[in-house]
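ok so for the tutorial part 2 we go from a plain amino acid sequence to predicted structure tokens. step 1 is just haveing the sequence, like this:
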Amino acid sequence: MSDKALKSIELFFQEQPSDKVYNVTLLQTAKGHTVAVEWGRRGARLSTGTKAVDVPLDEAQAAYDKVIKQKLRKGYEEL
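step 2 — the prediction. this is what the tokens look like for a chain of 79 residues:
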């Protein structure tokens, strides 16, 4: 089974001289659920990482919500 995106959000932060994006995706995987993230300057190649890997849905949802809350607190906005 390939990973299936259950939900995702694209955030951006634009304040001179910054122009950054941060993407968060909640994935269903063969072993559970994973929260994948991408970040970097808009228009450049994005770095990738994970915040939770192959965990139950409730844990992945909590990690997804936590990342979004942290970024919104730092001034990111939804695209």
